[in-house]
Amino acid sequence: MGSELLSSPTKAKTYSEIFDECFPFYLAIGMSYAEYWEGDSSLARYYRKAYQIKQDEMNHNAWLHGLYVFDAV
C-alpha cells in the first residue's frame, strides 16, 4: 500500500503512439484511412461527436423499449 508512489512514473506516449492506438476506433465508426491520416484534424472530432449522438439515441431507444416492457408486464 503506497508503494505505487515510489515506483518510477510510466513513460509518456508520443503523438504517433496515441494516433496509432486511436486509429482502429475511428475505422470502426466509419472514418476512412485517408480521412484519418491525411484529412483535416477536426474531422475526427466530428466523427466522434456523430458516434456519441448515435450511442445516445440507441441508449434512449433501449430505455423506451424497457419502459414499454415494464408497462406491459
How much helical structure, as a percent, in the residues? 55-70%
Structural class: mainly alpha
* Number of strand elements: 0
| Terminal CA distance | 50 Å
Largest sheet: none
**Low-confidence blocks of residues:** none
- Helix count? 3
Supply Rg: 20 Å
CA-based shape:
flat
Tell me what portion of residues adopts beta-strand conformation: under 5%
Order of helices and strands: HHH
| Average pLDDT score | 91
What does this protein look like?
- Helix content is 70%, strand content 0%.
- With 73 residues, the chain is mostly helical.
- The protein is flat.
- It has three helices and no strands.
- The protein starts with 14 loop residues before the first helix and ends with a helix.
Overview in brief:
The protein is an all-alpha fold and 73 residues long. The chain has helices at 15-28, 33-38, 42-72.
What are the main properties of this structure?
73 residues; mainly alpha; 3 helices; flat
Topology (SSEs and partners):
Elements (H helix, E strand, L loop, with lengths): L14 H14 L4 H6 L3 H31 L1
